[in-house]
Amino acid sequence: MDSAHPGLTGRAHETAAGGLAGLFTGFTDVTVWLYDHWYLLALAIAVCWGAVEQTARWLAARASSQRMALELVSSRHFDPSLEEIFRRGVQLSRASTSMPWWAPRRSKAVQIRLRADGSAPLRYRIEGPAGGQRLLSITPFGPDVTVRRGRPIADKPRTHTVRAEFILRGKPTAPLREVPLAPDPLQPLVDAVSDLRAELGDLAEIRLDIQRAPKWVLRARRMQLMGAARRTERREAQRATRWLRQDAADIEDSLAWQMRQLLSDKSGPGSGRRLVMPPTPRRVDPTEALGKLAEDDHLVRVQLLVMCASNTEGRAHARLAQLQAAFDVFGGRSRWAMRGWKLGPWRFGADRWPTRRGFERRWNLGHCQPPRPNWVQLSELTGLLKPPTVNCRLPVLAGDLPTFEFGNHELLLQGIYRGPDGRQRLVATYAEETLFEVGVGKAGGGKTERALAQAIAWAHAGGGLIFVDPHRDSWPRARPFLAHDALMPRILLFDLNDLGPNSRVSSWNPLGMHHGQTAHEVVEAVADAYASVLAWDDATAPRALAILTAALTVLVAVNEAACQAGRPEAQATIFHVRALIDDPGFRTAALAAVANHLDEETRAWWRSVFPTLPPDAFAVVLNPIARLSANPITRAFLGQPDGVYNIRSVMDSKMIVWLCPGGNGPTDRLLTALLARDLLRAARSRRDTPERERVPFRPYFDELITLTGAAPETIASMFEDLRKYRCHIHGMTQLLPRLPGPVRLSLLQNASTLATTAGSKAAIAPITAEWGDDPSPDRVATMARFEHYVSMTVRGRRIGPVRLRGPHLDHVFADWARPHQVTALQQTAQANARALPLDELTRRAAEQLGTVTSFVTARAASGAARVSTEKNQEFE
């Protein structure tokens, strides 16, 4: 058939050849046209690219509008393991994909925000897709990390703002430096923001975006790296071959080789020039060539953005330089470097066109779109995948510990804090949160000076207090700073130290009823004080307790009757217990005078039980009273019927009381116990006042060892109960182990503030043990004088222990010293306490028995006459 139509076949070939030629000509014409009109092709490509980019941006913005935020707050003892941190990284990587299928890759990321704005040393926040909230809410860190819903953050505009983007530089397959967990890898970043000042508008924020590495991009990069590695090996092999041939040629041209050839009798083809075998290229090991990119598992792409701002020029740039230095810690063969280039004093980067707009878009929307791949393994990000740990030293910011303001009644002075930048400021706690405070340290270490500064500041702010100092050293020290006209009317001095023949003493009647006390509370307070000092209880001294309680009940009833009769000057004192027991006439008159004030059980005890007691049963009750009576100071102080000292009135009227009860002998211990128990009674009596109307009051106890030796159970009860009555105790002691067990346990359990100065390691160990031995006893023991470690409660959480310098009165309150008014203060304080010469009070105390006897005798006679009249009227 083909041979039958040869012309047709030829024409077909010609047609096909012509078609191919036409197609080639058309393609050539199109190419030439596109070459001549290249701008049209570029415009079409640009339009298509722009449309795709705008669509991707719109979809990414829509996807990013539904994001969640979690804030992670770590405890002081947070100490995660590498495995826990790695698991958290896996969670973050998985959560980055919790997006709708249509979301562009740039929006599929989880962001770690490290922020310092003055509210916290470094806030740790995670933001990401809303679908990943349930996955990220439960962390592998356990209870040491609290996860809470993050609130939106609205920043006020700052005057000066700098931006920076960090990219990975160096060998792309090399990992970042492996930073150990101790000290915390976040420590350089924390140190970089430690001198941040919120009042100047300082702000620093780091954002690390994490997303899974794109598979196809990773494969292409691997192919590129393998090709580059093979080319490198071939070049090395070729270079080695050239060196071998050159070396062989040099050897053959040498005289030694030529002589050896002439002397050799060998001949043949092998006797000529040496054959050089070129080395073959070494097989490329994928693991070695690809490095950290060899495995897909746990490989992520990251984006690191930083922004610093301030209202003060230069501070934002300085902060960025500090953060840049902090990121250098993570550098090795691969390192974090700031994107951009520098020309003289100018730097062109994220703050300049054309990259600034893209930076702000990624910053505001949380898009991960780094200019370079920035591929890292999760193990390289160990330091950034967790909040600060126990190994991180956090600074104390103004937001953590408020700055003290003189005259502010809401703040309580604590000491001088020296910041990382060397600035010093007076720091304070909130008065309503400082319930109990304990200060420990060696003599002369500064604990009393710190308490004095706090008490003086509280007094100037309008607060009420009592400073109990058995040794009186604190009063002369405090006088120059209290000698102000506005304070003098509120200051009372009760000084029971022996000051010589011209001494002036105030007065107190523990059994007095002229201040409106409750009778049974007064009896209970005095009896408990006796029992505390003498170690009485119902098992060891039941008879002594019964005698003392019965005697006090009668005397308090006499005083109650005297006050009702308008004769408070006729009240009995504690020294009249002896007359009630030893003097039958006085006893008969007293019982008859207050028969209507006593219950039947008490009257029956005096009628039937008292007469049966042997005389030696009263010695154990009367001997302590005899010791009090033998001391002229205590005799004058306790022997007045209408004593001035009224701690309940002091509490409610915001008075300032300095009480110096004396030494630590048996007599002093009994007096101290009476005063301590009366303070406890008065504070508990505030239950008759609504809680909101109770005026805050602060007792300061210097030398707790002396005070608790007299009344251990009373002091322990104060630390346990008085918070409810807005009575907040501050105690100072040299040795915590020397305090009685109940007192020590109550102190440590309820202390809002715990402070220690330097001292022996054995003495300091109980305090540092409360802090987990951080700081250690060795560090505390070597502190300088007036240095303190203090743990405080601020806004419901514990701050510290923080190293503070104790406030020295001559420095902190130098402007408030009034030494020329010290004499006036002394006289006013004694006059407010109605202190009188010792001789006059001693004489009054001696005459008081006769006054009380006259009152009860007259009252008994009138009572008998009244009873006789009633009987006669009944008979008639």
3D structure, described in words:
With 876 residues, the chain is α+β, with helices and mostly antiparallel strands. 44% of the residues lie in helices and 16% in strands. The chain is built from 29 helices and 24 strands. The strands form 5 sheets. Strands 1, 2, 3, 4, 5, 6, 7, 8 and 11 form a 9-stranded antiparallel sheet that branches. It has a 9-stranded mixed sheet with strand order 16-18-15-19-20-14-21-22-23. The protein has a two-stranded antiparallel sheet with strand order 9-10. A hairpin with a 6-residue loop joins strand 2 and strand 3. The longest helix has 38 residues, at 215-252. The N and C termini lie far apart (173 Å). Mean pLDDT is 86; it is low at 870-876.
The average pLDDT score comes to 86
Rg over C-alpha atoms, rounded to the nearest angstrom: 45 Å
Low-confidence stretches: 870-876
Largest sheet: 9 strands, antiparallel
- Helix/strand structural class: alpha+beta
Number of strands: 24
The portion of residues forming beta strands comes to: 15-25%
Kindly state the percentage of residues in helix. Answer: 40-55%
